[in-house]
Design a protein that fits this description.
The complex is a heterodimer of chains A (226) and B (616). With 226 residues, chain A is mainly beta. Chain A has three helices and 17 strands. Chain A is globular. Chain B is built from 18 helices and 27 strands. Classes of the chains: A mainly beta (226), B alpha+beta (616).
Chain lengths: 226, 616
């Protein structure tokens, strides 16, 4: 039966988080090892899993995320397999192993609840962008899943004085060690970014990496679903 | 990320993949046709100076195994494994050819392709169809050649004369009518390892006359497969067995006629007389023959299949042991290929699928991961790092960098580099020429790059005024790297070398300012905005074309129609005619009142149209 689909059966679990195809992540949940995931990102689950949207712990940390509407996170706990996706965006799974990473809020899909994390506004940018750019800094030993519209690219910032400039709409994640500052294109004529006019980029300097998606679509689809 | 090649396109292999262990698959088929697919290893003068580098079904690998014939798999009619860094310095070019065995013309072939995969991913594909050919009987599909590094070129050049003409073209010696003794002079290259003792077992059934000659190829094939890795063994083994199979029926002379000879001659072989008889014994006792063949020292699996006569094994395994005797000669397992699959080599599955092991065994790969297949077949020497079977599993090893390894920026070197299917990097440093890019397409840049509004000049005025929607460009100047992308659309850098291409204005992402471009306007009823604007680029430089989804490249024929909303680009020599009498659209989408507009193209053969699966 359905031979073409037969190849899509889930592979046996070998890690806490794994890609199933490039657009879906499979998380193996166990009791006591909870997961925070974006509300609305669950597409399927097997086993006994409970969801608690907007748990108090999250509200504490992310109290002013997105103009105080509460953090769009849910806590998933239980035993089973959880499948997450975000409207067909590519999913990148990272085993932090002690490292840290700063993730643009709309590109965060899920992360282990025991990781250290915090939410902040991207410095230097808030005053230029209308709604501001929120990012979550996550570190510790555990797993994180990010989304990216299209296959992302990882660029090494090098180490010298050179700055790497990124279109904020295309930014996915970066090493927390990098220095970030907003940069406005001063030429009246230069209209980078959206053609709408506000021309700004984020300048990263220092040692680390920047992850960029090949799309300037920064709309938060999960958020629109309501 | 697969890069589509057109006839004449060339690219550095290092730009396609960092791997040097390549899988080259050729798919070619036509009703009632059989193909021999071979690889010629040529020297710097493009001569076949060393026969041992003519890799075909009778000689499934080059001496140092840099080029190996793997047999049909994963949908490919024939496949090769090419390990670039093991190719000896005197071989500078590998030409992949397909020749029709028996009667037929290339015009009869259906759509086919030559593709290159590395690390389990298809990186390049050159597609062709019979309409590109006429009466040719052989075709050079593609070259992997060395010029400051290994490169790939899609050739697609036909030859009227078939395999022999090809061989002559490459300066190979086609030995005419020499008898079995020929091995010494004619076939020296091929037969070196040939052990006469090996062949006999095979030859026996076939008939007395051929003993000397057939052995040569057979033996040549024999020792070779010995080493290939486990899975590889299957095809190797079967190819080996293939050799004997042809040899028996084949008249001795062709066999002895050096490599080329047997090729054409042998194919009709399948109907071999002996096999049925032979079949029985083989099934009953596969091992003994293996023992006899002693020459191949290899691991047991290899000899085992070898022991099977192709027909013999084809039918028993397929029909299942029970039916063994029944469909002897007609047994052609893969019906698509007609009988000759045998000479083409492998039929690995059958060999494998022999009674005991899980029948699916040999076949698994074709299923999900096409590209994965080569991998499984070619286990050893994984120069490319993450070649393990599990495609989707994240790179093991903790840490952000480890996890993101596969998304790393590809190394610099060229002015335009495709980073993945959706992101292109332009290196402004190399020659300081400015690049024009669609506004807002920059996602990241490094270095001192200045972006300025590009007064679009005439183009801007025309496009802007008429459609009310200006095509806004920015000029990137300075030193540094700029990454361009838009909406995760697929990007295709098109390198122009004096030729010209028309691209729909909506599908241009960026281009070298050195290119000469002009606006062309195609008017027609029903086109939104009253006209379709295209940019015609000409000169030397690169245009980056973006498409939603994987585009299709159609050859222009008298009956090529394209939806004006989905058209992306076409070769500038093609003339466009607007035809709006077709009402498909209205019917297809109720409620849509506009009239469907189709573009028809008129052009000499060789022109093409690119269409995306998305109607803007």
């Amino acid at each position: 039966m359905n031979q073409p689909l037969a190849g899509c059966a889930p592979a046996p679990v070998t890690a806490r988080m794994e890609n199933h195809g490039s657009h879906m992540v499979k998380v193996a949940l166990q009791t006591g090892n909870d997961l925070f995931a974006r509300v609305g990102s669950m597409v399927a689950y097997e086993g006994f899993i409970q969801y608690e949207p907007n748990p108090p712990a999250v509200r504490q940390i992310a109290r002013d995320w997105m103009t105080g509407e509460g953090a769009p996170l849910m806590k998933c706990s239980g035993d089973g397999l959880l499948y997450l996706a975000d409207y067909g965006a590519d999913v990148v799974v990272i085993d932090l192993g002690g490292d840290g990473i700063s993730v643009n809020a709309t590109n965060l899909l899920a992360f282990d609840a025991h990781l250290q994390w915090g939410v902040e506004r991207v410095k230097g940018l808030a005053k230029f962008a209308g709604q501001g750019l929120w990012n979550t800094t996550i570190s510790g030993h555990g797993w994180v899943a990010l989304t990216s519209r299209g296959t992302p690219i990882v660029v090494d910032c090098g180490s010298g004085e050179d700055e790497t400039y990124v279109d904020p709409d295309a930014l996915v994640a970066w090493s927390p060690g990098l220095k970030v500052k907003g940069r406005r294109s001063f030429k009246a004529q230069s209209l980078i970014g959206r053609g709408s006019g506000e021309a700004f980029q984020l300048a990263f300097s220092g040692q680390g990496i920047v992850v960029v998606q090949p799309s300037e679509d920064s709309a938060d689809r999960l958020r629109f679903r309501g | 990320m697969t890069r589509e090649f057109q006839r004449g396109h060339k690219a550095r292999i290092s730009d396609l993949t960092r791997g040097t262990d390549l899988y080259v698959g050729v798919q070619i088929a036509g009703p009632g046709l059989t193909f021999d697919i071979s690889c010629f290893g040529l020297d710097a003068d493009e001569r076949l100076s060393d026969d041992r580098y003519f890799v075909f079904y009778n000689q499934p690998k080059s001496p140092e195994e840099a080029i190996q014939l793997l047999g049909p798999q994963a949908g490919d009619t024939e496949s090769f494994r090419v390990t670039l860094d093991r190719i000896p310095p005197h071989i500078r070019k590998l030409t992949f050819t397909a020749t029709i065995d028996g009667a037929g013309q290339m015009a009869q072939i259906g759509p086919g392709h030559l593709r290159i995969a590395a690390g389990g991913q298809e990186v390049a594909r050159y597609s062709f169809t019979g309409s590109e050919f006429t009466t040719e009987r052989a075709v050079m599909l593609g070259d992997i050649y060395y010029k400051d590094g290994w490169r790939f070129a899609a050739v697609g050049q036909g030859f009227d004369g078939g395999l022999e003409a090809l061989l002559k073209n490459f300066g190979g010696e086609v030995l005419e009518d020499e008898d079995s003794g020929s091995r010494s002079d004619g076939v020296p290259g091929f037969a070196p390892p040939a052990e006469d003792d090996a062949p006999p077992p095979f030859a026996v059934p076939s008939g007395p006359s051929t003993p000397a000659a057939p052995p040569a190829p057979a033996a040549a094939a024999g020792p070779a497969p010995a080493t290939p890795a486990p899975t590889g063994a299957a095809p190797a083994g079967s190819s080996q067995s293939a050799a004997p199979q042809e040899t028996p029926p084949a008249p001795p002379s062709p066999a002895s006629r050096a490599a080329p000879g047997p090729a054409p001659a042998a194919t009709p072989a399948p109907a071999a007389p002996a096999p049925p008889v032979y079949a029985a014994p083989t099934v009953a006792a596969p091992m003994p023959p293996a023992g006899d063949t002693a020459t191949p020292p290899p691991p047991s699996p290899a000899p085992a299949p070898a022991a099977y006569d192709p027909q013999a094994h084809a039918q028993p395994s397929f029909g299942g042991p029970p039916h063994a005797p029944a469909p002897a000669p007609s047994a052609p397992p893969p019906p698509g290929y007609g009988q000759p699959p045998a000479p083409q080599a492998p039929t690995p599955p059958p060999g494998y699928g022999q009674p005991t092991p899980p029948p699916g065994h040999g076949q698994q790969p074709p299923f999900g991961q096409v590209p994965g297949a080569p991998r499984t077949a070619v286990p050893q020497g994984l120069p490319q790092g993450d070649t393990q079977g599990v495609p989707d599993s994240p790179p093991q090893g903790a840490g952000v960098t480890a996890a993101l390894q596969k998304y790393k920026e590809t190394p610099t070197g060229q002015r335009w580099t495709l980073q993945n299917g959706t992101l292109v990097r332009v290196d402004l440093g190399t020659d300081g020429l400015p690049v024009l890019a669609k506004q807002g397409s920059m996602v990241l840049y490094q270095g001192k790059v200045d972006f300025s509004y590009k007064g679009a000049g005439v183009m801007g005025r025309i496009v802007g005024n008429v459609t009310g929607q200006e095509m806004q460009l920015m000029r990137c100047t300075g030193q540094g790297q700029v990454f361009l992308a838009e909406d995760a659309t697929h990007l295709h850098p098109v390198e122009l070398q004096g030729d010209a291409i028309c691209v729909s204005a909506d599908n241009v992402l960026a281009f070298d300012e050195s290119l000469h471009y002009e606006v062309r306007r195609i008017e027609g009823h029903g086109i939104p905005g009253g006209a379709l604007f295209t940019l015609q680029f000409q000169g030397t430089g690169t245009v980056v074309v973006k498409t939603h989804g994987t585009p299709v490249v159609l050859p222009v024929t008298p009956t090529t129609f394209v939806d004006s909303n989905a058209v992306v680009a076409w070769s500038a020599a093609a003339q466009v005619i607007v035809s709006s009498q077709v009402h498909t659209r209205r019917n297809a989408y109720p409620g849509h009142t506009g009239e469907g507009v189709n573009l028809q193209f008129r052009a000499a053969p060789g022109n093409f149209v690119v269409v995306q699966p998305y109607e803007v």
